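Case study.
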Amino acid sequence: MNKNFLALLFLFLLNQTNAQQTTSVASAPMGWMSWNFFGDKINEKDLKEMADALISSGMKDAGYNFIFIDDGWQGGRDNKNNMIADPVKFPSGIKALAKYMHDRGLKLGIYSDAAQLTCAGYTASLGFEEQDARTFASWDIDYLKYDYCHAPADSNTAKVRYKAMGDALKKSGRKIIFGICEWGERKPWHWAANAGGDLWRTTFDIRDKWKNLTTNKNALGILDILDINAELSKYSGPGKWNDADMLVAGLYGKKGPSGDEGGVGCTDTEYQSQFSLWAMMNSPLYATNDLRNMNTATKSILLNKEMIAINQDALGNQAVRTVNDSIWNVFVKPLANGDMAIALLNRSEHTASYQLNAKDLGLAGNYSWYSLWEHKISSKGKKWKGIVQPHETKVFRLKKIK
Ligand code: GLA
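After joint prediction, the assembly is written out as follows.
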C-alpha cells in the first residue's frame, strides 16, 4: 500500500480521535432526572412515560433532551463482571431503553459511583472503570453521573478515581458526557475538568425548600445552594459547568429524597426563582417533577423559553453576582448577541421596591428592559424601578437602544 496514503489515513484517524476527545459540551445539559420523584424505585415503564411526557408537554422542543437515570437501576454483575440492569425494573435492558430515547430524538443518562457501592447501596464502578465505560458505550449511553458515596474523603483519591472513569469514558469509543458528583466537598472546580469532567456538582443535595433552617449541611434549600454556586462563576464555561443540582419546581413537598431533611415544598414564586437563578448561573436544568401531571404554574416555569435561552446562551458565561446584601441580589450575565441578562432577587420576607440603574451594571446608554416573566418590555432608558415580592426573582434582557 502507498506510504503517503497510510500517512494520510493515520493523520485523519488521529484528527478524528482528537476531535472526539476535545468536543466540549457547548451548553449545560437539560432534561429530566429520576431521583427526586422516584428515588431508587425506577423502572423502564415509568422512564418511558416521562420521556413521552417530555415530548407531549413541549419540553423536548424547549431543549430538555435528556432522560437521566439516577441511582437504583443496577442489578449487580454477570459471571464476566459486566454490569447488568435489574431485570425486574428493566426487563428490556438499558440498551433498548436508550433506543427508545434515541428513536424520539432524546438522549439517555445513567448513574454510577466511584466506590464499590452507590449512595443507595447498589453495585458501583470502582476497579471496573474501563469495563463499565465499555458497557455504557455499548448500551449507547450519552451521559454518566458519577457519585462519590462510600469513598475516602481526601481530594487525591477523588482526583484519581474520577480520572480513572474520565479516561475510561474517553477510551470507550463514545462521547459520554461526564457529570462529577462529589458535592463540592473537594472543590472540584479546580480539578474536575482535568479528570475529564464536563460538569460538577458544587453542593450537597438540594431539598424541596427555600432555605436551610438547621445546621445540617445536608439539608440545603434553594438559597443555600445559590450562595455557594454564585461564588464560583469564574470556574464555569463551555464544557466545564458548575452543577447546582436538580430543579425542584413542581414537587410541592413530595415525600422522597428532596422531601427529606425538611423539604416541605416551595411556593411557585420560589420555584420560579430557582429556575431563573439556575438559568442565570448556567447550571444544568434537570427537571425532577412528575411530568405526566404538571399544573399550569409548573409548566409556565419549566417552559419559559426566553429563560432557557439565557441558560443555553452560546457565550456560556455564568452570571456574576454584583449585589449581595441581606435583602437584594443582583446578577449580571453578558449574552452572545451583545444583550445583557439581569436578575434581581428579593431574599427578604417583605415586599420591597428597587431601582436598577444601567450604569451600576456597567452599562452606558439607553436600554429596553424586557421582562422574561412578564414577557414584555417593562422599561426603556437608563433604569428600571419596581416592586419585587418576597423570594421573587425578576429577570430582564437588556437591549441597547440606538
Ligand atoms: C447522592 C447524589 C444524589 C443522588 C443520590 C442517589 O446523594 O448527590 O444526587 O444521585 O446520591 O443515591
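Observations recorded in class. The pocket of alpha-D-galactopyranose is lined by residues 35, 70-71, 118-120, 147, 181, 183, 205 (CB under 6 Å). Residues 26-311 form a domain with the TIM Barrel fold (CATH 3.20.20.70). We will return to this complex in the next lecture.
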